[in-house]
Design the sequence.
């Protein structure tokens, strides 16, 4: 047996409701990948016996290893063990040793064991029992032909302990797959399709490395993975990253866990600069992203969220004439806001955002999504950028904060065309 | 065709990684249940064509309705449409009308459409096209024999709009079975355990209605459901809601889709009041929540995000002596910030937040999470509240914005003990 791929099945009607998602699979995926086993599908199914049996059969058909969580409890709707036994045509055999542990476990808590718990001592014929140090339900590892099934409790703390302490060591003996290493590169200020076109050749040059491109609210992520010895995998990832950087250059703002606000913060700190904002359509969410970073008080002085025009005049000194002639959503207003924010907070860099987040307020020449960004630096730099952000109000706002942060980033990197930022 | 049961399939390799779970299925489950359709299984699969095709076949075998999210984008690894077409042995036909819409959509944003987007105009033969008001990828409803397949984008905002506006009406024509109605009541400013104690008797009085309590970042949600004819179910929900309101009263700020920021906004509008903020530890996220509500410019004038002490003095006139004597995180500073915000923006209500979000900056007498809220109203009302918010930096900030909004809500409801808000 050598599982290079696995399915994960989460059992429980509560996972088919409107409030809960299966998060056990995130832990299991990471643990399996460390064993060189990649997860090719995940499913959730209810407690109904026939449906459960059918899902287990499907999963075994799709990958040689199946990890099931949930349905090992003492109640009538805990049927996972029964479904596996029925599918493999195996008996359930009462294990007196397990029964003794159960009785003892309850006795220690000063409770007489309820009769329903007895069935937790019934073992699938030929299965390896996985002890449960934190709960009453034992788990199982069952081998059938060229398939392996691991049954774990649904309670996260029990599931984690049992997998690490009992299941992983057994799987490690037989798993042959090399370990998987992952990396993510992040791009701001570009459309997904534009990135896609630039990186097509890189895909082609590195076949079979699961390169995935994800658009995440004004940010594009390039996910790629490699398997092999840790050293070999890292080497491949470095080569792929190098090729992405060749075509994307400075458009790549970060890697893995790095965030745009974190990267901009590091640049401000490194260059001894301070930032102040005048925000309109983003309504404080740009300052919110910047201050999500702990320690941001080192370089961020504050923001004037000038939602009303009176505030644009009163707090950052935009001239009423500018608002009358060009409107609050204009290059002129944005430039005065940037200068005013810099002045009001005494920062080295003033950044301004004004636009139409929608759904209302759009006009033919200024449709919803129209945004003006302006940046003024004490060194005399004055930048402006206009764009039309895509999507609904929430996306326009998020997209705009990313574009604004990216404008600061490109400015600090000293790139001439920060306008494109 | 009459679907009483459905499968949900989420497509995308990122959903098989270690960081993301499919949450679209929670929304879809609720929408399907409202149509009398119950979800019997959910699955996630990667982008690989053969695996995707196999999962679709399996899902159609398990339930007569399949809703698929993701894989409709323009990139090479968006293959959902192709997999369905191959499985049903149908052609993909270029639709010039859709192509026109796509080109126009890009033109409006001042971008020439990348060639890769053209494939988004290819339609599965015989499918109903579901328009995408918020993105470029159209969706599809395909009927094959006694099966129905609905294809939706993976981007939540696009998926939601498309399902509600285009897919649900088509499914409603044919769906049968008793509908499940759900309701959510929302409480702010209370600990989960305190809510739990108050509502225990209500649980007991209404057995078998799946009452669930969820704590969500400074907000407690009471979820409950009933099954039957829309009228009967609604009647039951009304009775349960009535009982919850008897024990919780004004602590309940909203229902179902209502948000705290939306409710506060309606109160401000109804009372003809305007709001201005001085935020420190929340760093703009309070203004951000308020302006998430479209139309908030009717009552929200703006915020001074006074992250640096110099900004507290310069923008909202906190006296340097106050900062020296009591510190920036103090009742005195909060009260001066509230008054200053009101004055600076010319609002009827000034609200101030100052605190220690952490992880650094805590002291024995002012531990991380210490927050002072202050509110000043032109009518002479002056409120102050101090609390210690739980959790890490992100939770402290979120929790604080909820407490601040709730303070305004209780003040506008004219409750004497708004201090508790």
Sequence:
């Amino acid at each position: 047996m050598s599982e290079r791929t696995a399915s994960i099945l989460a059992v429980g009607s509560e996972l088919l409701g409107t409030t809960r998602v299966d998060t056990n699979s995130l832990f299991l995926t990471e643990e399996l990948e460390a064993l060189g086993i990649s997860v090719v599908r995940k499913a959730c199914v209810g407690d109904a016996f026939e449906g459960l049996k059918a899902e287990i059969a499907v999963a075994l058909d799709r990958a040689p290893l199946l990890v099931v969580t949930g349905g090992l409890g003492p109640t009538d709707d805990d049927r996972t063990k029964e479904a596996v036994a029925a599918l493999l045509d195996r008996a359930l055999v009462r294990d007196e040793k397990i029964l003794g542990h159960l009785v003892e476990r309850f006795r220690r808590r000063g409770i007489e064991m309820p009769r329903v718990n007895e069935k937790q001592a019934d073992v699938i014929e030929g299965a390896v029992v996985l002890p449960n140090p934190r709960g009453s339900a034992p788990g199982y590892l069952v081998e059938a032909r060229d398939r392996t099934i691991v049954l774990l409790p649904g309670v996260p703390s029990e599931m984690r302990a049992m997998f690490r302490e009992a299941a992983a060591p057994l799987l490690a003996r037989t798993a042959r797959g090399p370990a998987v290493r992952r990396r993510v590169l992040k791009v701001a200020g570009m459309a997904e399709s534009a990135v896609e076109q630039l990186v097509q050749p890189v895909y082609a040059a590195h076949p079979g490395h699961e390169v995935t491109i994800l658009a995440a609210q004004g940010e594009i992520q390039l996910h790629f993975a490699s398997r092999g010895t840790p050293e070999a995998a890292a080497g491949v990832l470095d080569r792929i990253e190098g090729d992405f950087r060749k075509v994307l250059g400075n458009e790549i703002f970060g890697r893995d866990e790095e965030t745009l606000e974190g990267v901009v913060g590091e640049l401000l700190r490194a260059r001894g600069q301070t930032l102040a904002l005048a925000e309109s359509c983003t309504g404080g969410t740009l300052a919110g992203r910047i201050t999500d970073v702990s320690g941001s008080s080192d370089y961020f002085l504050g923001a004037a969220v000038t939602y009303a025009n009176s505030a644009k005049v009163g707090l950052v000194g935009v001239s009423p004439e500018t608002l009358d002639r060009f409107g609050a959503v204009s290059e002129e207003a944005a430039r005065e806001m940037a200068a005013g924010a810099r002045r009001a907070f005494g920062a080295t860099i003033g950044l301004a955002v004004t636009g139409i987040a929608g759904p209302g307020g759009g006009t033919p020449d200024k449709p919803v999504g129209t945004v003006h960004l302006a940046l003024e630096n004490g060194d005399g730099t004055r930048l402006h950028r206009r764009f039309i952000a895509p999507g609904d109000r929430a996306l326009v706002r998020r997209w705009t904060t990313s574009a604004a942060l990216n404008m600061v980033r490109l400015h600090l990197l000293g790139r001439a065309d920060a306008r494109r930022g």
Observations:
- Chain A touches chain B through 90 residues (CB under 8 Å).
- Chain A has three domains: 5-172, 179-255, 260-420.
